[in-house]
Structures are given as structure tokens and as C-alpha cells.
Amino acid sequence: MTGLYIILGIIVFFVFLFSVRFTVYMDYDKDFKLDVAWGFIKFRILPKKEKPEKPKKPKKEKKPKEKKPKEDVPAEKQDNIIKAFYKNQGFSGVVQLLRDTVNAINGMFGGIFRHFIFRELKLNIIVGEADAHETAVVYGKTCSAVFPAMGLITSTCKVKEYDCEVRTNFCEKERTARFRVVFSIRPIFATNAAIVLAFKLLFKVVFKLLKNKPQPAPAAKPQPAQTNSEKTNKPNNENNIKEDINNERSI
């Protein structure tokens, strides 16, 4: 009985841990900052703190090694949307971040986004080019990329504070983008969605295997055995046919 109580206690403990909100803070205004909080614990993810460089020891001279033929290098793994934005910041990076977010919502794990709660979702973009015509063209392209993406986010997730603004600057050339995003999710919802997705994929694979299973060929039908009367009638019929042919010849 004590073993059962221990197992139940462990299950309750993990359910409690996975029920604590996991919050993400993202700020971008020339510099990108990413903080993560789980309950009362908060720590900085990006930018990473630079470690003090250790004094380098003088290296001994080594003999040059023979060059080996280059082997095929495997393709690099694709970065997640936040890491990709950290590498490519700026105006184009913000627009690409919105496109990647739309692809993620419409992708395989889109069901997880329904459990996201955005406490803040604010975006401010300013577009200015060399002349008014080019400014209007870039402004239209920017609006066609920004507003549908923000509309999809607000219709899929729960959003409390929302502000999205795209402005033009006809006086000087300028392309700036800044945002403030704070969203949270309970890990238990993410794990439940992942389990449901895994079962769906499993059932699809099993269904395809059963559907494409080769069916056995139909068995040949046994022909009816000939009776003795049919066997005896065959030579009689042949003799009658020969007699008819001889009578026709004689006539």
C-alpha cells in the first residue's frame, strides 16, 4: 500500500510542476532580449553573457599533416524561429519572424498555439524610402505580410494587450521595427497536445498499412465433374454427326 502512495505522490508532484506557467519575454529595439520565467524563477537566455577569455598558452609547433580528401559534410540543422531571428535581426528579420510564426501555426504543432496566452503583443514598424512611390510600394508589401500574420495569431491564441502599427516616413529613408511580446503556456497542455499528435500519426500509419495490405488472390472455382451419362453421350453424338455428313454426300 505504501508503494501505491509513493507512486501517486510522484504523479501529483509532476502534474503540479507541469501546471506551473512557463512565460517568455521578448523585447526588440535595436537589440534583442529573451528572458524565460518558470514560476518565480526568471533567467536571461539572449544575449548570452560573454565569458572572460583565458590567457592562451604558447602552442608547440606541429609538423604539417597530410591533407585528407574532403568528405561529404552533412547538411546543417535548421534553426528554430527565435534562433533564426537572433542571427538575422532588423526590419527583414522581423518580417521573416512573422512568416515563420505563421508557418508554425499552420504546421504540424499548430494545436499547441491554442493554449498560448499573450499578455502583451505589440509591434511598431516604420517604412521610408528614397522617394514617395517606392515608400508606398514597400509599405503595401509590409502591410500584406504583417497584418494577416498578426490576425492569425490573435484568432488562434488568447491576446490581452494588442497593438500593431505600420507607419510611413516620406521625409527620409528609414526601415525600423520593434516589438514587445510576453506570452505564457502551461507545459501540461504542450505535452498533452504532443501525445494526441503522436497517436494521430500512429493511427494514420497503421491505417495506411492496413489499407495497402496485399489481398490474397481469389481461389479458382472447381469445375463440375462430368457424369457417366454425359461421357457416354459424347461418342454417340460424334457418330450421329458422321452419319449425317455421309448421308449428305450420298445425296
Describe this protein's structure.
This protein is of the alpha+beta class and 251 residues long. Helix content is 45%, strand content 23%. A 6-stranded mixed beta sheet has the order 3-2-1-6-4-5, covered by helices on one side. A hairpin with a 2-residue loop joins strand 2 and strand 3 (41-46). Helix 2 runs antiparallel to helix 3 and helix 3 (91-105) runs parallel beside helix 4 (132-156). The longest helix is centred in the middle third of the chain and has 25 residues, at 132-156. It starts with a helix and ends with a helix. 8% of the residues are buried. The model is unreliable at 69-75 (pLDDT under 50).
Q: Supply the helix-strand structural class.
A: alpha+beta
Cα distance spanning the termini:
112 Å
Computed Rg: 38 Å
Number of helices: 6
Write down the secondary-structure element order.
HEEEHHEHEEHH
Strand content: 15-25%
Mean of pLDDT: 78
Keywords:
alpha+beta, 6 helices, extended
